Amino acid sequence: MAGGFLAYALRRLFAAVPTLFGVTLIIFFMVRVLPGDPARVLAGLEADQHEVDRIRVQLGLDKPAPVQYAFFLEHALRGDLGRSTVTQAPVLAEIAGRLGPTTLLAATATILAGVLGVASGILVSTRQYTAADYALTVLALAGVSIPVYWLGLMLMLVFAVALHLLPAGGDTAPQSLILPSITLAAFSLAIIERMTRSSMLESLRQDYVRTARAKGLADQVVVYRHALRNALIPVVTVLGLQFGALIGGAILTETTFAWPGIGRLLVDAIARRDYPMIQGVVLLFAVTFVLVNLAVDLLYGYIDPRIRFG
Amino acid sequence: MMRTGLYRVGALVTACAVALTLGIPYGGQAAAPTSLHVAIGIDADTLDPEGQTTTTVANMVDYMFDSLVWPNDERSGVKPGEPQYTKLVPQLATSWTVSRDGLTYTFKLRQGVKFHDGTDFNADAVKFNVQRWLDPAVRNPNRYYFTDIDTSRIETPDPSTIVLHLKQPSPTLLGRIASGVGEILSPAAVRKIGNDKIPLGPLDAGTGPYVFKEWVHGDHITLVRNPGYWGRKPYFDEVVFRVVPNAGTRETMLRAGDVQMAFEPPAPDVPALRRDAGLRVVEGPSDRDVFIGLNNQYGPLKDVRVRQALNYAINKQAIIHSVLFGLATVLESPTTPALFGYAKLQAGGWPFNPVKAKAMLAEAGYANGFTLNFRTPTGRYIQDYQFAQAVAAQLANVGIKAQIQTTDWPTYVSWILTPLERTPLQIFVLGWATQYLDADGELYGQFYSAQAPPKGLAPSFYKDAKVDELLIAGQTTSDPKRREAIYKEAQQLIWNDAPWIFLWSQNFYVVTSSRLEGVTTTPNEKWAAIYATWK
Fold this sequence. Notes:
The complex is a heterodimer of chains A (310) and B (535).
Chain A: H1 2-33, H2 38-43, H3 49-59, H4 65-77, H5 91-125, H6 131-145, H7 148-162, H8 178-204, H9 207-214, H10 219-256, H11 262-271, H12 275-303
Chain B: H1 2-23, E1 35-40, H2 55-62, E2 69-71, E3 88-90, E4 93-98, E5 104-109, H3 123-133, E6 155-158, E7 161-165, H4 173-177, H5 187-193, E8 210-216, E9 220-225, E10 238-243, H6 247-256, E11 261-263, H7 270-275, E12 279-294, H8 304-313, H9 316-322, E13 328-330, H10 354-363, E14 370-377, H11 384-397, E15 400-407, H12 409-416, E16 427-432, H13 439-447, H14 465-476, H15 480-497, E17 500-513, E18 516-517, E19 520-522, E20 526-528, E21 533-534
């Protein structure tokens, strides 16, 4: 079993290679199809054409795109993602500097969404059509429909401006994390709560649950050991998919809260047509997606023994 | 059983949250008066003075460096409310002379000044910097500012004198040197850090009132006071520029007390900010012209009567009042009052007269109007997309259907740079400002015919032989009185030709805590807050 698992994991990892290669190809050429000249953006509107040409040569943008791509790929394979055309800092160092804040934010939001979402989902599944159920339904609806930036600004107005309890933005104190992670978690929390609720309701109606109850097992054992384990399979899938939503949400949340993370790095890079930086960040996102998908697949096996790694 | 378990978890989570919010005291609102926090909209691209293309970034760089000459401002003792940037005053040079033929500039340098790294400021350091301005290995988008200097003939007769020889007269040279692009770096620091690393952290390279401490990309840039500054000492020990891209967040952080000063919060909130007793809106005119460029070579716009009619059709004052919240001043000339060579041509700008506009369109053969595409950026100039909609509505009143299209800034720039044969532009929103506050920067950049794209950035494709001749004369004439006359004539010709719909110069504004005193704005879109104090 252990060997099978390892072979399965390795096979999945290898399958990711062509995916990642495809991603680099698409990103590289898509970025270059975007209108807007990085050399001109860098030189500023008032600079003269000679200077713009000089910068273009410095950046290697005077070479044909396939040559640039080959150069990029060759360096990327050696772990060198190039230098930002804007700050001239190495892309990898810049990304590494922003990885910490984003990971912290995304991890806190995921835990918040996962734990609270599953807990509240279980809670309402065991008391369908009660006041608590309706209240959480309304909250979940709010969670999926309120735009991230609006929720963020409202939280700021209440907790920073009116109550003076928390900082409005930035990454200056541990408390700075609270508002952005709540904001970022809201959408996923709502989705996971709804998912857990319906999945649990499904499980609780199954024959094996009735059998377990008939055996006289304690309520807690029935719910957690028997029903929950099966109910969690679709929840794990959703949790994995929510990771994508988290990255998208992180871009807005980071901008709203002036959080110095990867999402904002990407937005800034696009606004400045910083090709190497855009490529680097998107490549990172792609790698993360592949790894999260892998983790979700592997987690299935742990939760559901029927899934084998053969 | 299960119920109590869940409640226990809930109680624990709530307790943790409360402990986190209340237990750890949050000190943001009690602003430490020794440290000034300023929320700015963008992160720096480079902290090398020579690389500056954005006034926000140049503004931060100014804290760390001095120049030979500088426009009179707070550093030379100008108080908020007093006229600023009206003349050039000594900074690292104590005096200067220009030869009669305009070809030789002799600067006497301030003595006893030390760079942050402890080395001496002297003529050799200036020579090093002048050569660096023109060094192709240094990325300097403003290199063309200094191309008239002959670097092979720089003289340093003694440590406090430097003589620059020019290849041809350059009446705007002093203004260019004073634009911030000509700030002086320590040669020792540049050699130690390296030209390619200076943009990332000019550690100890300047002579200015503040010293670079750290730059956490995307988050903040911190400067600390220079204890050995040769000039007036600032009040705050430390200045932290916090990068906050969202304008609403900058406002919220200011209201929450996280920062004491915020760069351009959302324009629609300005009326409310003005009413808030705890805050102060600091604003002033800038040298930035905001206009609707007309493609002078496109269809109906080739006819001067049509272009004039468009100017008559727009009620600028009403749009400033209702859409820009008063944050602009109507253009009364193609340039703005902040520039040398400015001539006021028509009080109140082109008059609003839709009846006359319709009559002129009918006279030009467009009684039934016509359709134009109308392009605008979003968020680049104050209320740009919003005022474009107001303008389109007013154009509709005289029978012109303008269809608005918008995009992100780099794409917009690529539209602007497209040559005439392929340009998508018919009418478009654009702003133009010049770092060296001279009519040359505005008029040559936008109305000299050879500046048409792709060579330059004059997308109105305006072409007038007399104007071309005047603009070249303005660049090479040394006598200031003569230059003023030349620019007055050029402005008059351009104004009557109406190559743009002349709109307004937008105001530059920051909002501060009302306890922060001594903050003002300058005409080149900077804030002057180095000598601000806390009450």
